[in-house]
Design brief:
The complex is a heterotrimer. Chain A is α/β, with parallel strands linked by helices. Chain A contains 15 helices and 18 strands. The radius of gyration of chain A is 29 Å and the shape is elongated. Classes of the chains: A alpha/beta, B alpha/beta, C mainly alpha.
Chain lengths: ~450, ~350, ~400
Amino acid sequence: MIGAASSGLRADRATVRYGARVAVRSVSLEVTAGELLALAGPNGSGKSTLLRAMVGLVPLADGTISYDGRTVGTQPLRERARAIGWMPQEEEAGENVSLEQYVEYGRYAHIPPFSVAGTKDRHAVASALTAVDLSRFSDRGMRELSGGERQRARLARVLAQESPVLLLDEATSHLDMGHQLDILARVRSIARQEGRAVVLALHDINLAARFADRVAVLSRGHLVATGPPSEVLSSELFAEVWGVVAQLRRDPTSGLPYLVPELPRAARPSRRPGRSAARVHVVGGGGSASAILRRLSDDGYEVSAGVLHLFDSDTVVADELRIPTALEAPFAPLGAESRRRNGELLDTADVIVVAPFPVGPSNLANLHDLLPRVRRTPVALVAPPSGIPWDYADGAGAAAREALLLAGAESLPGAEAVEGWVRGRLAATVPVDEVPTTGADR
Amino acid sequence: MSLNPSSSGPRSVSGSVFLVALLLTAGVAVAATAGYYTFFPAAVGTPAGPHVTVVDDKARSVTAPVNATRIVVLAPSVMDLVYRLNLRDRVVGIGCTTGIAGGMLNEYTPNQTADWNLTPGMCITDFPSLDTETVANLSAQLVLASTLTYASDIATLTDTYRIPVVVLAPGDLQGIVTDVRLLAELFPVSVTTALSLEAQLSGILDNASNLVTNLSYNDTPAPTVLLAYYFYDDGYGAYGADSFGQSLVALAGGNSISSNLTVQYADLNATVVLSEQPKVILYGTSWNDEWIVDGQDPAAWAASAPYWSQLNATKIPIDVTLITEPDASMILYLPWLEHWFYPTIVPAPSA
Amino acid sequence: MIGPTPGSAGTAPDPRLPRWVLAFLGFAGTLAALVFLSPAFGSVRIPWHVVFAIILRQVTDGAYPSSACGSPSFLSLYFFESAVTREGTARLLSGLSTSYGARQCEIWTTIAWDARMPPLLLAVFAGAALGISGGALQGTFRNPLVDPYLLGLSTGAAVGASILFTFNLAPAQQATALPLLAFCGGLVPGLVVYLAARGGGRSVETLLLTGVALNFLFSAILDLLLLYRPSSNINVNFWLLGGLGDASWTHDAIVLSALLLGGTAIGLYGRELNILQLGSDVAESVGVDARRVTRRIVLVTSLLTATAVAFTGVIGFVGLVSPHIARRFVGPDYRRVLPVVALVGALFLTLSWDIAETVISPIVLPVGIPTAFVGAPFFLYLLYRRRTGTSGSPA
């Protein structure tokens, strides 16, 4: 509707200099109508500067930026404002005008000189307010809005401009999660339905991947990657651009990729010089052990797990964390091979943690196999959350648990207690001065 | 390089051009109307009744009613002449620094107030600017101004209220005589008195110059004179060249020790006075000096002047208005100066 | 702007006039009342009904009323007046005719119309000029402490005036030469700031500081001139304090024309000024040529203020305080503030002129003194009152 006839915004080897410093280095990219291009990159990578150059607020040292075939900056100001809307990261507080009045400022380019706002303008304002869910505040003064509401108001102003090109600089950074997702979803639907070309600068690459049709990644002024999110996102890119090691995961619901930065690994607590590091074996399944696996792994312990079934969610986590695991085929009862392997891991572990996994006939053996080891190695049983059924083995699971407790296993109230117990257990068998602190902060 | 070339769309150009043209026309119309009324004001009617045109001391040509019955006098020096010409009854207002600036007695001494029968009700404020409204409200037909009156006030009187203003500002003693004649032109009813006053004043001036000529012919030495209107810690306020005080002393045959000072009212250092040792010292006293209020004797007051006891001179106190206000009284005082300068040659004038 | 707007669903239409309209009418009404009442005061006290009748007669070119000083049966003002003066009461009680002699009437007409009206109208026009200039500049520079003199206009004009007094130029045509020289002097700093703004890429802070620097420079030049000829000191000082007493109809016409032209030009930029408050970047992105608007407003306010100052001398506070008062009543929307601030400025200066004329009558104070005495405490009151309350509701 709005951008039907336009051919989009294109930057061709655009270069921006601030004195001697080059802020944007020969960036070429293109946004077409109906598309949402996310401009991602760490702070200082030139995202804001590139957006400013696109709207014509800073001059280009080299290259061109053109819209609909015409170089930006050659048209009169009003015409350009009708074509390109820009939402800044921050703006001056301004006076305490009403929200409606403020959004109407966006209509400036559409109101001829010496005229007043017309019906069309009022409708644009109203729909912009609806789009950011601020309609009920239209009479409030700008200074009475919260930071998040002001950010949405800014977006409404830009939306009211009804420009075929939208340049949004950090449109959601002050908003709470719910509003962030909501606003970005609306922006994307506006882009698609109204045929607008939207460039969205974000520093959160996961948000970018979630909502954008294409992602352009900037690093120190260079354009290092462009393309659909699934092609662009990778751990290597993340490490190179943001300098943080991250893991690439997939959102199970949408299939979209997202990056999770790895936490810095603490030094591993060692038992004695010369011996291998402390190892914790975790028995689990059905997702019960995921948190425990992660935590212990972050704390720097060597972790092993078993017996887990393939494609179990705990298995996925273990796989990611590269934890040695005794595996069994999906839903199959534990076979001899897997139990033997598990036994190896159990025998060489310093402590054993049993997550509150749902017990059924196929994995009852996990509990039985612990009995012989419970006297030799500290075993902790994490109590299952009350009210949730976990024994699908007609009471055999509960019985096995009881037996283990009677044999000397300890009961922990919840997964949070695991770390402390492990630490305590290991310290008890290790001279104090050889146990370093873990220090990893979640 | 400008990124934002400014140009409005075609529709708004014609809009703004139209508006600018409209406003320009409005502005020009207003200015033209005002200008018309200013530069072509309604014809100024000549004053009703007989009138006379004179040229005043500022070379202004003024048309005034003859023998005006309601006049305003703005300075004591003018009032002196007006009184001597028996025109006092026509005076409806006098210029005073009223209110916070002093009051009537700031300008007129008690003697003047008594002699001329002045009342505070006649006062019209003349500082910091003249209260022209009251002048108009008194239906004044003529204003006699002095050198102290501001041009802007004169302009207001003549332009806004159409009241003629004649400025009496004599530049020297002879100018005072001219002013008598000027007043006679304005008030023919006083011609007889004016003529006799003129004769009297001219006579004094002639006598004085004759005396000076004779004395110099006889090589009589001129006394060195200090004419001081004030003293302070280390000096005296004296009269420099081109001042009335200076011409009085010269005309009376004295040799003022401050005649070389360039400023009319100048400060003379006390050590200079001491070294000059003038023969005659005339020191001005003002009626509202503190010592008068305290009831002191002028000689006792003057004793505190610098080096006073070391100055061997005839020391005579004189009313300061007689040497600062250029009017008939000033000329009539001349014979006294002659007497004090040459006590053996010139007898004291009859009081 | 009047009535409900789409989007504020559910609110009934407000039958009363919007606040800004009430403020506008209130100020305009008060100003009109002052214009009619002020000529009654001065060293000669003229009855109010006579003043009213005089003004009406002049405006209707003598048609109505037939006599300015006739019996004021139709004016209740008379009763108020007579009640407060003993002679008036006596007259009322004795039932004497209250008409005055023709000669007295003529004198009063001259005093009220020819002598008092031009300075009064100059106060109205110059006050409006200073007010609207101050409002526009505060908006352009996004700084509530800006007044038209910050750009150096007043000191420039003072230098122009003192050049005339120091070198005793054109003593015969001083009435014309003084405003002309003051105007040219005042324009110089304004033009410098305008050219600086034209240079491109200057932030408003830089422009402001340019003006401040010029202020200091011209102040120093002024001091030099006064040092050169100390006797001209008193003339310059008097001019610096501000005075309306030498006003003529021509002066009024010139200032009014400047006010109409300049004021309208400024008033047309109301919407742009609103948007400028968000910063020049945002303004440009929305389509407002921030630099061009700044340049033009600097130019127009320089011309307007220099014209006013040329005829009135330096009168402080009007341009600084009036926008704050206007914003308090009308809200932050410049489209409404600008017309109202002109009225507020006119009202402020007219009130100060009335005070200057009457407080130590018959001596007339320089106008700059009452504006400071009234303006400064009022400004402080506004400042400190704001802290305790809300920051003002949107209009």
